[in-house]
Structures are given as C-alpha cells and as structure tokens.
Amino acid sequence: MTKTRNVLIIAYIFPPIGGGGVPRPLKMARYLGDFGWGVHVLTADPSYHATLDHTLLAQVPDEVVIHRAKEFSLLPVPAPKAAAQGGGSPGEPGRPSLAARMKRMVINGLKKVKPYLLIPDDQILWYPQALKKGREIMRSHRIDAIFSTSGPVTNHLVAGRLAKEFGCRWIADFRDPWTQNMHRTGIAWRERLEERLEERVMTEADAITTVTATFAANFKRKYGERIRRLELIYNGFDRADFADLEPAYAEEGKFHAVYAGILYQKRNPRLLLRAIRELIDEGMVERDDLLLSFAGVFDYPGYSENTDCVRELGLSDIVRIVGNLPHKEALRLMKSADVQLLIGDVSPDAGAYIPGKLYEYMGIGKPILALNMAGEATEIIQRFRLGQVADPTDKDAIKGAFLRLYREWKAGREEGQADDASRDADFFERVKPYERREQARQLASLLDELTAQPKNGNM
C-alpha cells in the first residue's frame, strides 16, 4: 500500500529493549503501514539497558525508520560480568575494596535523591537529546502526526514540544495512568508539579488514547471537556506471534503452571506457594504431579524473599526459576503450560489495570489462574471463560482456584483429552478488539480523521 502520510511514534522503550511496555509501540509500528501510514520511531539508544531482546527487531518492517537518541545516565552503567573477572589486585578475600565501597555509597546516595531530581520520571535525562533528534526528524521528513505512548511520560513532554513547534497533530497514549497511578512518590511538591504537567498534556494533545475503560473514565472524570478527544484502544495479542509456536520447557506428566514476567513486593507468588504447600499437605494434590516455572525477574538483585519462601516451604523440587528469556522463548514456555499464572498487584486500585500479560495468555489459549483484584482483567477472564480468578490476598480462594484447575487437568488426562484448552468456534472473532492488528487499524483511523481536519492553532 502506498504510504501517503507519516507518523512519528515516540517511545523511549522500543526494541531491542525488552519488557512489558514494548509490545504496544512495536505492534503499532509493525501494522500501521498496512493502513497507509509511513512510520518513523524516535526511541532511546539501548546502551543503558540490561534487558535486551534483539529478536524483537525482526518484527519491525524494513520500511519503518528507527531514530535513536542517547541519554545521560545519573547512575553508572554496570560493567558486563565478564569484564569484572580477572585482573586487578586481589585485596582482602570476601571484602569489597575501598573504591568499591565508596562507589556503592555514591550510588545509594544518588538513588535516594533521584525522586527529587528526575521529574516526571528517570527518563527526563533523555529529554534533551530526544528533543534534538526529534527536531532533526521533523525537519528532514514530512511528519503529519505524532503518537507518543507512555510510560515513561517523558515521551509526552517531547511530543508536546515537537507538536507545538511544528504544528502537527498529536495523540498522547497512556498505557498506565500518570497522576492517578498506584505507584506514586508521596512527595507533595513533586506531585503538584506532575499534576500541572499532566494537565498540559491532557488539554493540549489532539487526542488521548488509553488501554482500559476504567482509565478512560478516570481521565474523563478529572478533566472533562478539556480533553479534546478521548478514545479507548485496548492492549492485546498478536496472532502472528503464536503461529507455528512449539512448546518448550515442559516435563511429561506434570501439571505445569507458568508465570512469565516481573515479580516484586506488591506482586509476588508467596501466598500462592503457601496455598500449594497446604494442598500438598492436605493430600488434595499430588506433589509429583506439580511443576511451577517462573521466567523473568523472580527476585530483584539484592532481594531474596521469593527464593527464601520456596526454600522455607520445601518446594525447591517443583519450582523452577528459568530467568530472563527472549520473547519467542518465553512464548514457547507459556505454550507448554497447563495453566498460566497471572499474578497481580495487591494494591486496592490494582483492579483498574489490565496486565499486558493477560493478552499474551489469551493468544496462547491455555487456562489462566488469575490472582488479581476484581476489575476489568478479572471480568475479561470470566466473560470469555479463560480460567479461574482468585483474590491475591485470600489464601483459601487461591487454594480453591488452583485445585479446580488441577482437577480439570487430572480429569482430562484420565479421559485422554487434548492438552489445549477448548474454545468456542467464534472465540477469536469475539476477542478481535484485543488483537494488535485491529488496534493498529483503530489508531490509523483516528490518525486519518485528525489529519483530515484543519489545525486550529491553539496549542
């Protein structure tokens, strides 16, 4: 298809950087060309990022032009592990050198002051070079519209400045809320400043898009008619990612539960592990049947609560820590699951969020055990009969949900049923709004409409 117009996607997080924020800008870049839009991407130089997945770059069409802007890093970039081995003075065994201790003190000090310096987020240090590179793009290429997607919200600050200077349309996309986010600093003066920054984005952008109906309703409630246009474009899954996908990492005869993602204090598997331990002790499940695989970040560096829990409960033989995997390998791990674990935050407002992992699980098509606060994610799982839902703070509810899925698996094996979860014939038609290509079509339609209108010049 001939590309008659060009859009600049501003996304600090973009391949080869990996992580949960990558699929939305990546899939928009991949599919917008199918609907007549030429795509340029302004993103960060990946030098400062430890979690890289170069296989994701294969999904970017050749005609998409990627522009990378370097950033200043407040904290030193960790040296590769190999470079730290050998050489130098041995020093006192088991004790860090004076230089290492001083370096650690400086780093810890910088971490403490970061919330007071880096506003609205750590990526504000990318802003100067991103703005410079963005101006070069705008002058060298005919850009008709800008699509900025957060987090980080610094993306919107770059986009707003460019849209104002060059007079083009601007869509600000929120994968998560900004000031209504459950993860806040608690620094009063900073939060007031962020309120003003958010208001500027919300009222100056030609359109605001977001990923859940709850987010959209909250934005509307807060800003009302000052938002020029508000559209809901869900996150989702790409059916192409699952074509000819072969399962991996399974073990024959095991009830295999898989979690792929990041765990931290407010999102951890410890109550699930205690529930499973009790089910084993009560004779409700057979220990030899069980295998739990965790890919991604099980414990952040310097923390060991989840690992300690596994050891204390005596579950080391059934819990497998896989570590970070390339995206395709993570999908193969999910494909091998008998049940996919969706572990949500335990904050009271966590139900307003739809984890991106839910959509990948939807595309895999295996039953889901969702330990989530009630909200849109649990409603989707129940509406489409995707699995079992339990309050992540209720151990008895978790035990019941896990046991139901285990018994279904056990009954299926005894009856010789196929491992794949059954789906209605019209399943994929019903979940079409959650497919990435359909979401790119929706964005392209919005871009078409906005760029067809004369610019009112009031930005």
Fold topology:
Layout: E1 5-10, H1 23-31, E2 37-44, E3 65-69, H2 98-117, H3 127-140, E4 145-150, H4 154-166, E5 169-174, H5 188-204, E6 207-210, H6 213-223, E7 230-232, E8 255-262, H7 270-281, E9 290-297, H8 305-312, E10 319-323, H9 327-335, E11 339-343, H10 356-364, E12 368-371, H11 376-383, E13 387-390, H12 395-415, H13 427-430, H14 436-452
Parallel strand pairs: 1-2, 1-4, 2-3, 4-5, 5-6, 6-7, 8-9, 8-11, 9-10, 11-12, 12-13
Helix pairs in contact: 1-14, 3-4, 7-12
Kindly describe this structure:
By secondary structure, this protein is an alpha/beta fold. The chain has two domains: 5-74 and 120-236 and 436-452, Rossmann fold; 240-415, Glycogen Phosphorylase B (Rossmann fold, 3-Layer(aba) Sandwich). It has helices spanning 23-31, 98-117, 127-140, 154-166, 188-204, 213-223, 270-281, 305-312, 327-335, 356-364, 376-383, 395-415, 427-430, 436-452, and strands at 5-10, 37-44, 65-69, 145-150, 169-174, 207-210, 230-232, 255-262, 290-297, 319-323, 339-343, 368-371, 387-390. The strands form two sheets. The protein has a seven-stranded parallel β-sheet with strand order 3-2-1-4-5-6-7, with helices on both faces. A six-stranded parallel β-sheet has the order 10-9-8-11-12-13, with helices on both faces. Helix 1 packs across helix 14 (436-452) and helix 7 (270-281) crosses helix 12 (395-415).
